[in-house]
Design brief:
Shape of chain B: globular
Number of domains of chain B: 1
CATH topology of chain B: Thiol Ester Dehydrase, Chain A
Number of strands of chain B: 6
Strand order of the largest sheet of chain B: 1-2-4-5-6-3
CATH topology of chain A: Non-ribosomal Peptide Synthetase Peptidyl Carrier Protein, Chain A
Largest sheet of chain B: 6 strands, antiparallel
Order of helices and strands of chain A: HHHH
Low-confidence stretches of chain A: none
Distance between the termini of chain A: 12 Å
CATH class of chain B: Alpha Beta
Number of domains of chain A: 1
Helix content of chain B: 10-25%
Oligomer: heterodimer
CATH class of chain A: Mainly Alpha
Number of helices of chain A: 4
Order of helices and strands of chain B: EEHEEEEHH
Structural class of chain B: alpha+beta
Strand content of chain B: 25-35%
Structural class of chain A: mainly alpha
CATH superfamily of chain B: Hotdog Thioesterase
Low-confidence stretches of chain B: none
Shape of chain A: globular
Chain lengths: 85, 172
């Protein structure tokens, strides 16, 4: 079973939606195994902004080293799930 | 109530003993920050830092950036709730450096309350419209015994400002 946000939306879909909004790309073009830094228009500042928005959404604070260890979309989803769960 | 966009006269500036580094217009080495109500809700502050506040050449010092965040979040709380509060926790993501000589807009709002604390958020946006800093703060309302013990107020001054203290956080 997937972990859900307070609104019932699966965490993976929130992560994808935030990435799509930040990078101005289509959400359905983002896959779980995609490498974050290789997504169109991605840079470290934009990725950190997505991370900050995710922290705000669930009122959590990710470990800095864990943030910088994240390479793929799935790993970012897993980071949120570990913090929320 | 002050209109959206108009500078707010912070009511505690009338108290001579208040010499806040962030907001007092009387502190000669302070930032003299001015707030206005934001059209999006909450409060906002426009700031341009000179090279006096630099860290690396041309870059605003991170400590000064945190004074700005702390001040605008704390003032938003004071204006919205009529209480003074101590910051307990400040968290920030410094996404991009702030440049000396460029105008930045800091916005702050209250996002929650419970278990004796209030939660706030603030963002600093650059002239390019990009968010440079995202921050969150947790604040604890100041009790009158703390104010008496820490603020060195005489009886008359305490009487003038005591309405700012001993507020609950409104949780049910």
């Amino acid at each position: 079973m997937s972990v859900e946000s307070a609104t019932g939306q699966p965490i993976a879909s929130v992560v994808t939606e935030y990435l799509a909004t930040e990078l101005k790309i289509a959400a359905d073009g983002i896959g779980g195994t995609d490498v974050l830094r290789d997504l169109p228009g991605a840079d470290s500042m934009k990725m950190l902004r997505v991370v900050s928005k995710l922290e705000r959404k669930w009122d959590v604070e990710f470990d800095d080293e864990a943030i910088f260890a994240v390479k793929t979309v799935d790993e970012l989803v897993a980071l949120v799930e570990r913090s929320v769960g | 109530m002050t209109a959206v966009g108009e500078d707010i006269e912070l009511p505690w500036h009338a108290e001579p003993s208040f010499n806040c580094f962030g907001c007092s217009p009387h502190n000669p080495i302070g930032l003299k920050l001015r707030l206005h109500r934001s059209p999006e809700g909450g409060y906002a502050c426009e700031t341009t830092f000179s090279a006096d506040y630099a860290s690396y050449p041309g870059i605003v010092h991170g400590g000064i950036v945190h004074v700005l965040l702390d001040e605008v979040m704390g003032d938003a709380l004071a204006l919205e709730c009529g209480m003074l509060a101590f910051s307990v926790t400040l968290r920030s993501k410094m996404l991009m450096p702030l440049r000396v000589g460029l105008p930045y807009l800091t916005t702050a709002r209250i996002t929650g309350r419970g278990n004796g604390v209030l939660h706030t958020e603030a963002d600093i946006t650059g002239p390019d419209g990009e968010i440079h800093v995202m921050a969150g703060g947790t604040f604890q309302p100041i009790r009158s015994d703390q104010a008496r013990g820490l603020m060195e107020l005489d009886e008359a001054a305490f009487g003038r400002v005591r309405h700012y203290f001993d507020h609950g956080t409104g949780e049910s």
